[in-house]
Amino acid sequence: MIVRVVTFLLSLMIANNAIAERLVAQLSKEEVAITANFDGSEIFIYGAIKHDESDKIISPLEVVITVSGPTEKLYVRKKSKHALIWLNTETIEIDSAPSFYAVASTGNLKEIINNTENLKHKISIREVIRSIGNPATIKNPTDFTEGLIRIRNQNNLYQDLDNSISLTDETLFATTINLPSNLVEGEYTIRFLLARDGKVIDQLSTTIPVNKVGLERWIFDLSRQQPLIYGLLSLFIAIFAGWLASAVFRYIRI
Amino acid sequence: MQIYLPIAEVSINAFLLLGLGGLVGILSGMFGVGGGFLMTPLLFFIGIPPAVAVATEANQIVASSFSGFLAHFRRKNVDIKMGFVLLVGGLIGAAIGVQVFALLREIGQVDLLVKLCYVLFLGIIGILMFFESLRAIRRSKNPTHKRIIKKRHNWIHNLPFKAKFRTSGLYISVIPPTCIGFIVGILSAIMGVGGGFIMVPAMIYLLGMPTKVVVGTSLFQIIFVTAFATVMHATTNYTVDMALAVLLLIGGVLGAQIGTRIGLRLKAEQLRILLSLIVMLVCLKIAGDLVLEPKELFSLDMGITH
Questions:
Q1: Residue A190 and residue A67 share a domain
Q2: Burial (CB count within 10 angstroms: exposed 0-12, middle 13-18, buried 19+), residue A151
Q3: Nearest CB to B297 within list A78, A215, A234
Q4: pTM (2 decimals)?
Q5: Cα–Cα distance between A168 and A173 in angstroms, integer?
Q6: CATH number at residue A140
Q7: Which value does ipTM take for this structure?
Q8: Structure confidence by residue, pLDDT tens digits, B257-306
Q9: Which chain A residues are Cβ-neighbours of B256 within 8 angstroms?
C-alpha cells in the first residue's frame, strides 16, 4: 500500500516536472467579511511563475486570473411593445450563471487564449454562463445572454479586465480585483491560468469565502432559521419606534 | 455613510434611506396615507430588489402608521368601530392578494400588474380628488355659492346590516366599508402599499365620513393590514430586511409626527389638492415607464429568493 502511494506521488512529481513553468499564487486576504458598513472590497492577488532553468524563452508568457462568485439559476426576460405598453413577452432560463465574474489578464484575453482553449477551460464570461434547452420560439437566445452580461457589467458584477495584470520579468505578477458592494455570500473561486501561444500550460485555483459577519450574520440567520420570530421582531421594532416617536413629540410639544 | 443591507444584499447610503423615510413619513402624517405608493417605487429606483422593497415597506408602514395613529387617537379622530369593519375586509383581501402575487410572479408579469395597478388607481383617484378639491376651494372663496348640504340617499343607504358609527356620525350598512377594506387589502399585498391613498378618498366620497376622522381611521386599518403582510412576507418569502426597515422607520416615524402637525394647520381642501397633485405626479412617472421604450429591454429575474 505504502509503496503504491509513494510510486503514485513520484509519478505526480515527474509529471509536474515535465511542465516547463509553474504558477504559485497568493491572495492579500483569507476571507471577505461583509460587515454593516461594507462598501465593496479589494483583493490584491499576486504570485510568481517558477521557471525551469533549462527553459529558453520562446514566446512570451501570459497570465489570466478569473474570480467567480457562486453560481445561480435565473431568468432573463425581454420586453416588447404591445398596444402602447412595454411588457415582458419572452423569457429564457439560464441554468447557471455566476453572481460575480471577473477576468483579468496581462494582455488582451482574445489574443492570449485561443478559442479552443477558451471553450475547454471556460474562461470568458460567455463560456461560463450555461443555458440549455430553451424553447424553440425564441429566435436569438444569445441576445438574452448578452443582455444578462450587459446588465451585470453595468453593476460591476461582471468585469472584463484586459491588461490589468502586471507581469515583471515573466516571473512576478500582481493585480487587484474590486468586489462591488452588492455582493452575494458564498465561496468565491479564483483561478490562475498560465498561457503561451494561446494555450493554457498551467493552472491552479483557490477559494476565498465571502461571508456576512456580526450583526449582518445574526439578522440573516434569524430571518432564515426563525422566520416567524424574525417577522414578529420586525413588527415589534416598528410598533416601538412608532410609539417612541409619538411619545417624544408629545413630550416636547412641537 | 454606506450600510450593507443583510437581506437585500446591497450597500446603500444610510442618510439617503433616513431622508427618504422622513419625507414619506411627513406625507404619511399629513394625509393619513402610509406613503408606500411613493416609497416602494423609490426603493426600486435606488436599487433594492423589488421583492425586498415590497416586504420591507410593509414593515416600515406599520411604524409610521402607528406613530401617526397615536397622534390622531389622542385627538379622538379615530373611528375604531369603522376601523375594525375595514380591517375584516382588509385581512381577507391581503390573504387573497398574496396568492395572486405569487401566481403572477411565476409567469413573470408581476411587474406589469403592479405598474398597471399604480397607473389605474393613482390616475383615477388623483384626477377625481383634484377636481373635487378645486371645486371646494372655489366654493369657500365664493361664500354666496354655498352648497346645500343634503344627505345623499343612494343605494349605499339601502343595504342591510346597518350599524351606527358614532365617531363618524354615520348610520350605514357594514357592507360598503368591508368591500373597501377588501379591495384595499388585495392592492396592499400586490402593490406593497398600505392603501391609504385609496381608502381615504373612498371613505370621504363613498361612505361620506368626515375628513377629520378619515385620516386616523385609515391609519388604524393600515397598521393591522401591513403588520399581517410583514409576517406573511417574512415567513414565506424571507424578504423583510430588518436593517432597511429600521433606517426607513427612524426617518418615517419622525416625519409622521411632523406631518400630522402640518396637516392640522392646513385646510382640508388644501390638503386634498396637495395629495392629488402628488398622486398624479407618481401616476405620470409610472405611466411613462410603461409607454416609453425602456433603455434596457432585458431584465433579470432571480426567481423567488430563498
A1: yes
A2: middle
A3: A78
A4: 0.75
A5: 6
A6: 2.60.40.3880
A7: 0.79
A8: 788 788 788 777 777 788 888 888 888 888 888 888 888 888 887 764 43
A9: 242, 245
